[in-house]
Amino acid sequence: MQTSDQSTLKRSLGLTSALSIVVGTIIGSGIFFKQGSVLDSAGSSTMAIIAWIFGGIITLTAGLTIAEIGAQMPDTGGLYVYIENIYGRILGFLSGWMQIIVYGPAIIASVAGFMSILMVNFFGLSNFWRIPLAVITIVAIGLMNLLENKVGAAFSVITTIGKMLPIAVIIIVGLFWGHHNALGQTISGIHQSTGNLGVAVLATLFGYDGWILIASLGGEIKRPQKLLPLAIIWGIIIVLVIYTLITIAVFRFLPASQIHQLGENTVAYIANTVFGEIGGKLLSAGIIISMMGTINGKILTFPRIVYAMARRQDIPFSRPLSYLTPKGKSPVVATTFIIILATIMMIFFDPDHLSDLCVFTVYCFYTLAFFGIFILRRRNHFRPFSTPLYPWIPLISIFGGLFVIVSEILNDPQGVVLFLGIVIVGLPIFYLVKRYYRQR
């Protein structure tokens, strides 16, 4: 695959920026809003904690596997580039199509939808304002990302540092001022299927998702063969530790039955209980900023996939979508395109349902990429980074990916058919676009 795009995009992101993008993109709404749903699926606090740890381990093995692949292909486009180089143009296109039409806009809409819940409570507004506030936030962050990539990267660093404050407060308060045993709490009277560890782990993976997006900026990272693997691996490890501590802290502070009743409002309730109305609002503001950082990381990265596909003339309107601003080298049209699709999904989908379908769709292609490490090992002898404990780490990541796919198919077959249908629609579009450009 050609990589001429690297002559136009700026390689200006160092390890601090890359690591901040990984951590900032992962830590968003999931850990704050998924505690209730993970508990409901797991059936007990012990199994819920195990679910968060399992989700982190699956994500870490995935990150270690992709780190080896990404170090060999440090190009703009990430997963789209990997799949094409390993499996060919058609599967490569479908992986890119999935990210720019389904996964990217849906994940942005989902995080913004969760964020708007806090924003409505923060400003004391009615639920009518949830979607308008989420749309305004997406548009504002999108406008910022129309500038040079350093601006979006700097915002990621600032928000990543800022989000550590509410996280630290929740962990300290729960661990040292909580009076409940984090292990062994059970719940009853739930209408959902309890004791289903598979569904619980699936819910946690939304909280861990986003780590691979740094690979889409491969063409803008300094010394990507070294820094890309470091950013992915250490970013996931940091998040795994933080998520485990937050989950234990939440169960220390509140009984499982109350967490079940509060659902998405669990963390907001803890904030108001500990710090009162003003302190609770300040903590909620920190969490809102955290989610803004996550949205920023996703709006920073997904347009790069659009740009990479447009450079290859794989999608309609490739010429405008591949446009970069002369000075800042920012893909402004591609960014606008992602914002519009995210807004549409925000209006028509529930954020919680959307989050699970996002994870399922992207893991279909993650799993293909995980298999690809065995293919690349046969092709290439030189590897800037080698996955440790090969082949066991890649095999765990593959089984983790298959586990996600099967769990979601069994849990929500109708949603799976809908999202897979949107992905498959990309095939005739691919052939029509290629035919159009051949005739010109």
What can you see in these coordinates?
The protein is mostly helical and 440 residues long. The protein has a single domain, classed as Amino acid/polyamine transporter I (Up-down Bundle). Helix content is 75%, strand content 0%. It has 18 helices and no strands. Helix 5 (79-87) packs antiparallel against helix 6 and helix 7 packs across helix 12. The two termini are 22 Å apart. Residues 1-7 and 189-194 have low confidence and may be disordered.
Structural class designation: mainly alpha
User: What is the count of helical runs?
Assistant: 18
Kindly give the count of domains.
1
Strand composition percent? under 5%
Keywords: Membrane, Transmembrane, Transmembrane helix
Transmembrane segments: 12-33, 45-67, 100-123, 129-147, 154-177, 197-218, 230-254, 331-348, 354-377, 389-410, 416-433
Main location: membrane
GO molecular function: L-amino acid transmembrane transporter activity
Q: Gist?
A:
This is Amino acid transporter. The protein has 440 residues and is mostly helical.
Features of the shown structure:
18 helices, 440 residues, transmembrane helix, mainly alpha, L-amino acid transmembrane transporter activity, membrane, disordered N terminus, 0% strand, Amino acid/polyamine transporter I, globular, single chain
